[in-house]
Amino acid sequence: MSVIAQEPTPESVWAFMQETARQMRETDRKMQKTDRQIQELGRDIKEAQDLFTTQWGRLIESLVRGRLVELFNQRDIPVYDTSTRVKGSREGRSYEFDIIAHNGDTIVIVEVKTTLRPNDVRKFIDKLKDAKHLMPRYRNNVIYGAVAWLQADAGADEMAVKQRLFSIRAVGDSASITNAPNFEPRVFWP
Predict the structure, then answer these.
(1) Half-sphere exposure of 153 toward its Cβ, with a 13 Å CA cutoff?
(2) Which residues contact 189 (CB under 8 A, 6 or more apart)?
(3) For residue 113, what are the β-bridge partners?
(4) Predicted TM-score of the model (pTM)
């Protein structure tokens, strides 16, 4: 059986073009729907990731906070209690410190990171330099800094020690200071 091809007529060409345009509109509609679904999925993944990171960070913070008083007292830094997630705003600048260990004359401000990176150390030092301005109630205190972490990337833990910060590693169900026993911490002044 042979098929005989017919010559296209203006009407058949017009009908073909209309059908093609209809199919293209339908494809565009489906692509837009898929784009919306991908964007929603991306937002959902980001929210889940943020929640996981926040909860993981709080776990690390809890592990560290539980031993801070003991750890600093062993290093002859007499502190007797801790405050967590100290937040505020001064002169239009917001701040947040993860943990502050204090005794009245001395405070140790601790930045807690699941993964400590060199940029985290740099940013934290800038925060420490500004701490007395941001929190004037500590203006007469000796201020030391510490970073607490589960893992460190690119030598960030060594960088912290070179900047004379305490380096606290969260291990197992506890934490330990990794600095050498004769370590001399930096005092942060305005």
Answers:
(1) 8
(2) 132, 143
(3) 149
(4) 0.71
